[in-house]
Amino acid sequence: xxxxxxxHLSDGTKLTVSKENESDLREALNKASRAVLIRDNTxxxxxxxxxxxxxxxxxx
Length: 60
What we know:
This protein is 15% helix and 45% strand. The chain is an alpha+beta fold and 60 residues long. The strands form 2 sheets. It has a 3-stranded antiparallel beta sheet with strand order 2-1-5, with no helix packed on it.
């Protein structure tokens, strides 16, 4: 079963997090960090302020 982790930002942007980087996002959110590096499925890197993350969606 394929699954996706999608981060929704306050400006309407959606980023699909690569499976290899899910733990980085989880760790940053748990530590109340100010920024997290999100690498999407295309390999592109995005530095995101965690205060701009509206929700994190798990799609399966």
